[in-house]
Specification:
Elements lengths: L1 H33 L15 H36 L9 H20 L3 H28 L13 E9 L11 H14 L3 E6 L13 H6 L2 E5 L9 H16 L3 E6 L4 E4 L8 H12 L3 E6 L1 E5 L17 E3 L8 E4 L4 E3 L6 E2 L3 E4 L6 E7 L10 H6 E3 L4 H14 L4 H4 L5
Parallel strand pairs: 1-2, 1-4, 2-3, 6-12, 7-13
Antiparallel strand pairs: 4-9, 5-13, 6-9, 8-14, 10-11
């Protein structure tokens, strides 16, 4: 378009210039005739005048330039596309690199002019690369959604594996376990293979309620929300915690084959299996070898020390990487058959049928993220360092959770942004 406008203006300028020249020439010729010089006073009208012939030659030249420019531009785009398709060797080019690029450009130009099919080849390579990227991204999305399914894809009741959570989220909590950490825990349980979670919200003040924060999970059918505020204050283990677990068994126990009662800083973990739904596999496999077991308990490994910065490491399981050498105490957490529990407690239920068996720690254990509790929320001490050892076995799960967050959640803020309700 710019070339067309330029050509039009050039034609107009040349036309006016030649008109003025011709007019001056005619005027001069008439004056010479009047002065008695031997020139014809009259002459016939010629078809190819000097003005017309000059304008025609200029027009042909302009058209030649325009068409030549179009042809060069097409060749230039092909060459640059070929150059762009070569792998980058760094950021900014040095003076030596520029000379190399110039040489490649000239060689590529010669090859391009001699091979008319080259542009199609370049386009196909670029398209193939884009298709490979889309295929890889789609594969990741399919893998993620295979475990973070929505309500329509949930398994039918009774569920094989569920969990019950008693929780109070409040600002003055020294451990700073916020709504973000609760959502992270639920996100992790989904990865681990839990099909449903019953959340008993023991808020004391109305602004502490987590009902709105859990709405998207309630709508998906992954969470059943229970207002437990009438049992929240004054808090007692029997009146608040035991009663919540028992209420869940009484009301929803028929919906689960196996159920775990754990807190939001307690993460079931298998050292030998970090693939999605690993808890389901461990429970199914171990229960077959222990047919009389009605309760399978996870031994307690404490992750201690000063956590990493939560702004740089928003996931709780990505902040603490030192754990006790073995089980820290006898405070196990149970995965039980609700139909075989006569009375619910925190660590060992009273069973009406069957027996309680510990999981081997290499099959399934509980990673308990205590953080800086034992050092009064201060810096790491020599005692804490001596009591713990580095443990990076959670790295693969952390990576999977980060990779899938955009495919599994409506917003990354749900697990990355700190909030209280």
């Amino acid at each position: 378009m710019l070339i067309y406008i330029f050509s039009s203006h050039l034609w107009l300028v040349l036309d006016r210039f030649m008109l003025s020249v011709a007019s001056s020439y005619t005027t001069m010729k008439r004056k010479l005739c009047c002065s008695g010089l031997p020139l014809r006073p009259c002459w016939g009208r010629k078809i190819f005048t000097l003005r017309r012939l000059t304008c025609l030659l200029i027009a042909v030249y302009v058209l030649f330039v325009v068409f030549s420019f179009h042809a060069f531009r097409d060749r230039f785009e092909v060459v640059m596309e070929r150059f762009d398709s070569q792998p980058s060797q760094g950021g900014l080019l040095s003076a030596r690199s520029i000379s190399i690029v110039s040489t490649k450009f000239l060689n590529a130009t010669k090859n391009t002019l001699s091979n008319a099919s080259t542009p199609q080849t370049f386009v196909s390579k670029k398209t193939t690369k884009k298709q490979n990227y889309n295929s890889s991204d789609k594969s990741l999305m399919d893998n993620c959604r295979s475990w973070c399914r929505g309500r329509t894809e949930n398994s039918s009741k009774p569920y094989f594996l569920t969990a019950v959570l008693l929780v109070r989220i409040y600002v003055k909590d020294l451990a700073q376990l916020t709504t973000r950490e609760m959502r992270q825990w639920l996100y992790y349980l989904r990865y681990a293979g839990f099909e449903h979670v019953y959340v008993y919200d023991a808020f004391v003040f109305k602004e502490e309620s987590q009902a709105q924060a859990l709405k998207h999970l309630i709508d998906e059918g992954f969470v059943t929300y229970v207002d437990w505020s009438h049992r929240a204050f004054p808090y007692s283990i029997s009146g608040t915690q035991h009663s919540a677990y028992q209420d869940c068994i009484n009301k929803f126990g028929h919906e689960s084959m196996w159920q775990a009662a754990i807190d939001i800083d307690e993460y079931p973990f298998s050292p030998t299996d970090q693939q999605p739904k690993f808890v389901q596999r461990q429970v199914a496999g171990f229960s077959k070898t222990m047919p009389t077991a009605s309760e399978l308990t996870m031994q307690n490994f404490l992750f201690l020390g000063k956590p990493l910065d939560s702004n740089e490491h928003p996931l709780l399981i990505d902040r603490l990487w030192r754990r006790t050498h073995g089980p820290a105490n006898l405070l196990v957490k149970p995965i039980y058959k609700p139909s075989h529990v006569s009375s619910a407690t925190v660590h060992h239920n009273a069973l009406s049928k069957g027996r309680s068996v510990n999981f081997p720690v290499n099959m399934l254990r509980m990673n308990h993220y205590w953080g800086a509790r034992l050092q009064n929320w201060g810096e790491d001490t020599p005692e804490i360092i001596a009591r713990t050892q580095p443990d990076t076995s959670m790295e693969s799960i952390v990576k999977n959770l980060k990779d899938c967050v955009t495919h599994c959640l409506p917003s990354v803020d749900l697990v990355y942004r700190k909030q209280w309700n």
